[in-house]
Write a structure and sequence with these properties.
The chain is mostly helical and about 90 residues long. It is built from two helices and no strands. The protein has one domain.
């Protein structure tokens, strides 16, 4: 029983941590893509440093977002720890 509670808690917390990490990475990808687009349109590639691999930041960010939401739903975080089923009462 204790191992089940620890497993539930670990899944819930991992999901809670993965969702904002994914959002941060996705936001970073959007910023990097914006910098790259701005540099290309202004033709100031020499003054703006290479923004880096925005595609991979965004891809990994979306993976983390989906995994975090999936873990939170699977663990039943919105309802709390799943309680023991009530024993059937005789009529």
């Amino acid at each position: 029983m204790a191992a089940q509670k620890i497993r539930w808690y670990a899944k819930a917390q991992l999901g809670v941590l993965m969702l904002p990490a994914g959002l941060c990475l996705f936001g970073e990808a959007v910023i990097r893509k914006g910098i790259q687009t701005l540099a290309a349109s202004a033709k100031t590639v020499d003054t703006i440093a290479d923004p880096g691999p925005w595609f991979w930041y965004g891809t990994f960010g979306l993976i983390l977002i989906n995994a975090g939401v999936g873990l939170m739903i699977e663990s039943g975080l919105l309802r709390g720890y799943p309680r023991q089923p009530r024993p059937e009462q005789p009529n």
